[in-house]
Amino acid sequence: MSSTTLLRTLQTGHVGLNVTDLNRSIDFYRTVLGLQLTHEGTDPERRYAMLGRDGRLVITLWQQSTGAFSTGTPGLHHLSFEVESLGEVRATENLLRELGAEFAYDGVVPHGEGSASGGIFFSDPDGIRLEIYTRAGVDETPAEAPTTGAPTCGFF
Q: How far is the C-alpha of 149 from the C-alpha of 143, rounded, in Å?
């Protein structure tokens, strides 16, 4: 019997992110993703926050970093969130613009040429690369994929 047979219900659980300013990151993720603060560790030597939705933990933030997110070292490439509609992607894009977020590409873009899926690609306050996308409807927009031969979510 293969060991993978035991993992039939495998799903991604929560994601833990190192941040430089816990309060700033809590505000960002609550505002942009609509998450609720479910628990916070306030010990000055071990500050963290658990953020979730509908009773499910989504992100844990750990204030234990300095500097900015590095794309040149092994580790997280980007964190992606799927939403149901292109309207939700566009609404989030507008909110992020109001917040002054940095975008990798301008506007909603398809994952690849002719792809119905796509979204927005941006960074959180620590430079962690994020994506909010939808599976359908992007092929009806006039935008073209910013790269060819690779998915847009590669942030090339």
A: 17
pLDDT on residue 3: 58
- pLDDT tier at 60 (50, 70, 90 boundaries)? very high
Q: For residues 6 and 77, which has the higher predicted lDDT (pLDDT)?
A: 77
- The domain tally of the chain equals 2
Contact, 93 vs 109, CB < 8 A?
no
Show the domain range for 138: 78-146
pLDDT digits (tens, 9 = 90+) for 98-127: 999 999 999 999 988 778 899 999 999 999
Q: Does 94 lie in the same domain as 52? A: no
CATH code assigned at 84:
3.10.180.10
